[in-house]
Write a structure and sequence with these properties.
about 240 residues, alpha/beta, Rossmann fold, 7-stranded parallel beta sheet, 6 helices, about 15% strand
């Protein structure tokens, strides 16, 4: 067994999918750097928490500094931080627009751009985004322009980065969930949302965790958008 402890950075890590992804990497023995605005200090010496706004370029720098200071390497970046605001196009406010781009795109850009040089120096690394299956098709029943703009952009950027670094040891993939049972959804309506999926059920957080870990192990996969959506994209 290798004596090298692998290291993952996970954004949006204080609850829901992010928290579960952190726990999954720790269960594998990884050192983890976890971040969100509200994340609390950790008593686990192999789990370092960094509170901050992921859309701020300084947060990405602090994540990399913490990883290198404590563990000396970065093997995986999970760009999980994101928010959803579903509205009719003309109902979006400037504040909605700025907030969504700040978290979803600025956070993805600055965190990834700061981590990639470390991975290049190592000669290896894996970057994986949590995007959305709904970013790949439009529906008049569920308008979500800014989700299409940001998550669809992340899907395209995933493929672009995968090709740019394909010969340099860095893989870049994405997991595109359907509707997952997380705290971000109103419990009063969440069961109704199951009807959007051909399987007529909701996804669970563990489904996304398994997908992230699959891509982590899939050494011959890069540029992949892995749909975990109860058949949603297949039915379009």
């Amino acid at each position: 067994m290798s004596e090298i402890q692998k290291v993952a950075i996970v954004t949006g890590a204080s609850q829901g999918m992010g928290e579960a992804i952190v726990q999954a990497f720790r269960a594998r023995g990884y050192g983890v750097i976890a971040t969100s605005r509200s994340i609390q200090p950790s008593e686990d010496p192999h789990l370092i928490t960094v509170a901050g706004d992921i859309g701020d370029p300084d947060t990405g720098k602090r994540l990399v500094a913490a990883a290198l200071e404590r563990f000396g390497r970065i093997d995986t970046l999970v760009n999980n931080a994101g928010i959803f605001i579903g509205k009719a196009f003309t109902d979006y406010t400037e504040a909605d627009y700025r907030l969504k781009l700040h978290t979803n795109l600025d956070g993805f850009f600055f965190a990834t751009q700061t981590v990639i040089p470390v991975m290049l120096a190592q000669g290896s690394g894996h970057v994986v985004q949590i995007t959305a299956s709904t970013a790949e098709f439009a529906s008049s029943l569920s308008p979500a322009f800014i989700a299409m703009l940001t998550k669809g952009g992340m899907n395209a950027a995933t493929k672009s980065l995968a090709m740019e670094y394909a010969t340099r040891g860095i893989r870049v993939n994405a997991v595109a969930p359907g509707i997952i049972r997380t705290p971000m959804h109103d419990p009063a309506v969440i069961e109704q949302l199951a009807g959007f999926h051909p399987m007529k059920t909701l996804g669970e957080v563990e489904d996304i965790v398994r997908a992230v870990l699959y891509l982590e192990d899939a050494a011959f996969s890069t540029g992949e958008i892995l749909h975990v959506d109860g058949g949603l994209i297949a039915g379009r």
